[in-house]
Write a structure and sequence with these properties.
Oligomer: heterodimer
Number of strands of chain A: 7
CATH class of chain B: Mainly Alpha
Number of helices of chain B: 8
Number of strands of chain B: 0
Structural class of chain B: mainly alpha
Largest sheet of chain A: 5 strands, mixed
CATH architecture of the largest domain in chain A: Orthogonal Bundle
CATH class of the largest domain in chain A: Mainly Alpha
Strand content of chain A: 5-15%
Radius of gyration of chain A: 20 Å
Largest interface: A-B, 54 and 44 residues
Shape of chain B: globular
């Protein structure tokens, strides 16, 4: 397959950046989007040009490193997958594809398609953990947790922190990310004891990082590669109001 | 590390205020409409004028009216504030953004629809509230309504603005419950049914007024 790729090129954070058109030849329909970029980059290197920088690691949809805005959709046109899981057969042969980095004040561009997502790390540092004393390992099932609760906590824990929710949101809001983290821990007895401080600190950090507010458009849920539900945003709101008002 | 902020300094807190004032203003829509239905009583405006007189002079109503103005102001100011904050969060736009694939138009345009409703509110107050309550001109509210609605351009603006208010509430009403954290299968259904009253039935009620009086004027009833 052949494609015309319109990719965002930006030398560094201070560079203005611009789109550059490339043609990608002889791409296997089974190639992932990242493999297509690899093929294109090989060609660029052979020609002595700077390859297109993009984030990637596991390439099996579990690490959350990759993330591109492809033809106006976070992680491309398919639902429930990360960019690395997107296959080139999802595109029409000969079509042109526009690739952009995540756009958010809280995710500044480092180079080309790579953005700095350390704002997510700082939100996690603010409260996305439980304080435990290390020691002998506790008995399994010492704390009974109903199946439905553990399932819902696991659904929230599926968040890989890729930032697609921020990228898809018109406000660049991180509410689905923070909602998933707060919800995951608030549902489980191990996380419940610190729920008040956690939600207050994480929301304060989220605001400080410059993420926008939630308009309940639910674009985040639609674009999340792990299909995390906005039910977790409702729980985040509830947790926050409880912390502030109760 | 102390990262605690007070409620209204946080984005979630401001959204909570938007939801609370929004629902309060929704309650006003019900009361305003139910009272104004007296316009349709075929008595030359006697009942409606009596009702207007009551609303203008009753101490309890006038006190609640202060709260109503505060509600409007808070909803408008915080709405504009959030909109500015949200714009700042994305300084650089996408070249291509297929937002319609992942969200509804109503949910993305509440600031725009709200702004038009705000313009409507100013015009509306200027027509009915300012002459009677502020300038204190002694006139029949019913005559004022009949006179204002004779103008088809004015009526068209009314119809469009109210329709946009309905569109605003199509997203806004149910959105408030999400912001309060009230979401679950049993609530979702109930909220969506009540939402239908607010974004469809009440706007139709309001729209019927200019249309009725325009029809009455054109057909020579009034």
């Amino acid at each position: 397959m052949n494609f015309i790729l319109k990719a965002w090129r930006q030398k560094n954070g201070n560079d203005k950046g611009m789109f550059v058109a490339y043609s990608a030849h002889d791409i296997s329909p089974d190639a992932s989007f990242l493999e297509m970029l690899d093929v294109l980059n090989d060609e660029l290197v052979k020609k002595g040009e700077e390859p297109i920088a993009f984030d990637h690691d596991c390439r099996e949809g579990i690490c959350g490193s990759c993330g591109l805005m492809i033809n106006g959709r976070a992680h491309g046109p398919q639902r429930g997958i990360a960019t690395c899981e997107l296959r080139m057969r999802s595109f029409k042969d000969g079509s042109s594809i526009v690739v952009e980095p995540w756009r958010a004040a809280a995710f500044p561009v480092i180079k080309d398609l790579v953005v700095d997502r350390s704002s997510f790390d700082r939100i996690m540092e603010a409260g996305g953990f439980i304080s435990v004393k290390t020691g002998g390992s506790p008995d399994a099932n010492a704390i009974p947790i109903p199946k439905s609760i553990s399932e819902e906590a696991m659904d929230a824990a599926a968040c890989i922190g890729c930032g697609a929710c921020v990228a898809a949101c018109k406000n660049s809001s991180a509410m689905l990310f923070v909602g998933a983290k707060v919800s995951h821990l608030a549902l489980l007895p191990q996380g419940r004891s610190e729920r008040t401080e956690r939600v207050e600190h994480m929301i304060a950090q989220m605001d400080e990082e410059g993420f926008g507010g939630c308009s309940n458009t639910y674009a985040c849920e639609a674009e999340c590669p792990k299909e995390i539900s906005v039910v977790h945003i409702a729980r985040l709101n509830r947790e926050y109001l409880r912390a502030k008002l109760v | 590390m102390n990262k605690k902020t007070n409620l209204l300094n946080s984005s979630v807190g401001r959204k909570f205020l938007m939801g609370a004032t929004g629902l309060f203003l929704c309650s006003f829509l019900v009361i305003h409409l139910s009272g104004n239905l007296l316009l349709f009583k075929n008595d030359g405006g006697i009942a409606f004028d009596a009702y207007s007189e009551f609303m203008a002079t009753n101490l309890l109503i006038r006190t609640i009216e202060i709260g109503l103005f505060a509600g409007f102001l808070a909803h408008i100011i915080f709405g504009a504030w959030l909109w500015l904050d949200n714009r700042r969060a994305r300084p650089q736009r996408y070249e291509i953004n297929k937002a319609s694939d992942s969200s509804t138009l109503a949910s993305r345009t509440t600031f725009l629809t709200g702004s038009i409703v705000f313009i409507f509110l100013v015009v509306h107050l200027n027509t009915f509230f300012v002459p009677t309550r502020i300038l204190g001109i002694e006139l029949s509210m019913y005559d004022l309504v009949v006179e204002a609605f004779k103008n088809p351009v004015y009526d068209a603006f009314y119809v469009i603005a109210i329709a946009l208010l309905g569109y605003h509430l199509r997203h806004g009403f149910q959105s408030a419950f999400q912001t309060f954290g009230i979401r679950g299968q049993k609530y979702l259904m109930l909220v969506n049914i009540v939402a239908l009253i607010f974004w469809l039935i009440i706007p139709i009620g309001y729209i019927s007024m200019p249309l009725y009086f325009l029809w009455a004027h054109l057909s020579g009833v009034n």
